[in-house]
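Box 3.1. Reading complex inputs
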Amino acid sequence: MSSGDLKFYYFDLQARGELTRLILAAAGRSYEDIRFGFDKWPEYKPKMILGQAPVLELADGTQLPQSLTIARYVAREAGLAGSDNLESAKIDAVVDTQKDVNETYFSKVFPEKDETKKAEELKKFLDETVTKHVENLGKLKKAYSKDEKYFVGDKLSWADLFVFQSIQALLQAVPEVKGKFGEQFKPLMDAINGNENIKKYLDARPQTAF
Amino acid sequence: MSTYKLYYFNTRGRAEIARLIFIAADQKFEDIRYEHSEWSSHKNEMPLEQMPVLEVDGVKLPQSGAIARFLAKQFHLAGKDNFEQAKVDAVVDTIADAMTQFLPIRFENDETKQIEMVKNFFANELPKHLQNLEVLAKQFGNGGLFFIGNNLTWADLLFYEVTETLLGLNKNALDNHQWLKQNRAEVEKQPRIAEYLKNRPKSQF
């Protein structure tokens, strides 16, 4: 299978692109991982369907925008989106729950320029948002997991990869968050870090600021 | 035969898309609506202490997007294959981007501030999302009046639902967007939807 039949366009960052790269890695799916710096964005922007990135481009040139839509599509193609509609929905519910927290960080903490305000927002985020979120993830895992490890059923899904990536990204941005997740996700993180395909990808991926 | 219960407040909000999918698909469901005063006594029955929640054969699903996508797939309103479903999801996410910008306005308590925010939203924020939706319709629709292919999907229902709220605040919001207006008209005239719209309780949001 040539890598030319799937192209993924995104900045040379993790941010909103890394989840798809992780899913494709887990699936052992080859693709062209097109990365660009902000300086090159004016060249790429007019070629993207909505003038935004990431974009997934198929062999026939059709483009898909929207990071989570792309992730769900490649996950489904790779069998990482649940074995039936209800499992897919449980996975979506975990993804949406993680997404809500990521968006809270990106809208309330990340853009705050005033140092004092930022510290306040960060404290609120850690004490309230993250605390509640860890509880919520625990509840969903209890309701949907069959093996105490993966979030839904008993195999890896893109929900696991999204939580994994989000926690890693948050740890990189806010080291203080380390203790908040406790031990309950350790089996999952170990399983993902130990997955052969993912390990290969993680060892080789470029280091980026975020 | 599965049994479905939908739990939400007595308003359109984040549950109406699910209700519209049930109606469009002519599927039965228990439409449970809690007044705000009774909500606190039911809060800990819900997985994330939030609503909407869909209960399918006893399994509870939170998150309005996950619920809507599940129902649409159950009832063949989600696109006919994985790629079509992705196109539907792309339109849904683009609509959601617009509504994420709208949400702070909805909950702004200062009336003067809220009026300014509404004006700013319609003048400076909404247009680019409407343009994006038109781009997607052109790419994904087959030259017809639905967003994807030639059939009604939940993307059309969601667009109808959110623009109901927006048009309630600014009846001219879609004046420069002929195709989007026609898409709404197409949804409105689906027989079961038309009947439902005639009889459903009115709500601003």
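In summary: The radius of gyration of chain A is 17 Å.
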